[in-house]
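Researcher: We're teaching a course module on how sequence relates to structure. For the next exercise, students receive a sequence and then see the predicted structure as tokens, so they can try to spot secondary structure elements on their own. Here is the exercise chain.
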Amino acid sequence: MDSGGDLVVVSADVASFVRPFAFDVPDVTVRAQDTALDDVLRDAAAAMRTRNESPVITADVRSMYRRFGVDPTKTRPSSEALLRRVRKGGELPRVNNLVDVINWCSLESQLPFGLYDRDQITGDVVLRLGRPGEAYPGIRKDDVHVEGRLTLCDGAGPFGNPTSDSSRTMVTTQTRRALVVLFAPVQVPAEYVARTAGTTRERLLQFCR
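Model: And here is the predicted structure for the students to work with:
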């Protein structure tokens, strides 16, 4: 698995607020259902329900959203949306083994993740603010408007943000290579982000190779 700053170019207009960590995952096998994950995901959700305090990382991510003019109570980071879901008694959503592992890691770390089919990405990946009128078709939803918001872009335009990713680059059972991006606020210690990425890699190797 390759990782490092070269995978995502960070634009100057967002560099003081967010420090992404990205890595490639080659040779993945995506299964629509994987019973091997049943118990670990159930246990992960149960463990987060017993943590009554609001994780510090959640507050850091909310602060990052506000710096870009986004109200995190109306447009929630994906990590916080997962936390709210399980604390209301729900289980982690099941999509496929690759998405399920990423949701698991996002829930525990409270960092928003992006997950993309590497073969659907063209050219360099850039993290920047969305330009006037920019949007993309979301996954099972209407267009996601990213003007003035944090967004990942490639040669074909924007395709992801810390809340919602695009249908163009979504992971399916046909995916063979994936790109994982952790949208880490700059105030989150680099060691915490690296440790989260390491745990994520280990779980992907265990359940998705």
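Model: If you want an answer key for the exercise: Residues 5-208 form a domain with the Phenylalanyl-tRNA Synthetase; Chain B, domain 3 fold (CATH 3.50.40.10). The two ends are 12 Å apart (CA to CA).
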